[in-house]
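fold-stage: in
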Amino acid sequence: MARKFSGTAADPTLPKTPVTLDGVEYNLCFDYRALAEAESAFKKEGYSPNLLVSLYDFSLEGVLLAFPCAVRKFHPELGWAGAQALVTIGTANIIANAIADAWLASQPKPKDEPALPGNPPEPLAEKNDGSGSGQSEDTI
């Protein structure tokens, strides 16, 4: 019988961004389902993480709100207070950078799409012939 890992911390497809704090490695997970589950669980405990705001707010408050949610999938034992306790004056920038890296890594990769016919061509470079008249005839 196959074991189910999907959506669990053992799921090898979950995005994982490591951050080392005081010699201990923690993994952030910026899977939308994992973040939504964390946000919901913490709301049930009486906390109010608003990830739609805190992910775009790189203030200390934003880091304090986003970090517990991002670290919860792989480190649920930390809880809200334990995760926030890891955010100190010495670790805040490290955590903020890890959050930014995890956020960027979680975004879908842009597809290489061929240019459509009729799209404007690249702008022509101006040629400076020293006359001070701007564009030359061969670039117009």
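fold-stage: in (second)
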Amino acid sequence: MSLNIAIQVSSLGQRCGIYTYAYRLEKYLNKLNGINAFMFAERIPRDKKADVISLQYEPGLMRPQTLDKLLQKYVEPIIITAHHTGYLEQFFQSIDGLILHSESQLKAFKSEPWDYRIIPHPAIVFPKKDKKKLRRKYGLPTDMKILGTAGFIAGTGKRLPEIARHLLKELADDEYLYFITSYWKGGDFGYEQAIRDTVKRYGKENQFRIDTDFVPEQTLNEKMQCCDLLFAWSMATEPGSASGVAMDMIGSYTKLVVKDSPHYSIPASIDGVEVGRADQKEFAEDVLKLFRTGDLSDIPDPRKYSWENLVKDYVEYFEEFL
């Protein structure tokens, strides 16, 4: 007997974190025996059958009115994945199940959902490779320490031009800053040029690189493995969301420092991950201190957080509603 899972994603085919998540969910579900998963945006295709619907909710992509219409439209069990919790509590009586990515998201609600499962945002994990060989493969310096970050260049509250300024201003001669930051569905808001202007202002052209192309998962993972230290900072301060790209950074085995924020509560709880102060300037100071004097040992085996491992938790939860 097969399980047919319809994955609803409003940003189908677009460059954004929600679609990336839905794409990976479909991909790894379909690697399991007896699972048939497919994506849709507004309506399930007539030639497709759904036993359960996995709905990707983020209020910036789906207005509450749209969510209400979907809940009323389908009789199949609907399990919402809360990429953000905004406006969601009003639908607790209508939804069948709820997936949260961290316990901190519960703090966004006045009352507890009647049925939910906490599944950490899965990470892309590939085999650990030799750092110097990877640097040669991607044309990165082998004689400098590399500090990096990854994710979309804009649209996620990272404010990269500002943090680039804080870091570049203090970057030592033997240090290299690497942004693995692809263009978002909304472009880059002028961020790339602003960052390049800052690089030129401080004379760091030979100590900086930004890759803005959207690359396959393994390429992203290998580029992150090239770094000695990765960092993740976002404007997010409320408990409504959870970082996906920080989990991908963990999947590269590379030492990571995250902002002290509920947005990073799961990665911050993982052995080997450091936490920096919330203020961006102070966070940059913490990053550089760790980069220069801290323990940059690899993150212990991150495979327990991989899509291959955690996708089974989704199936287990979905099956409860059959």
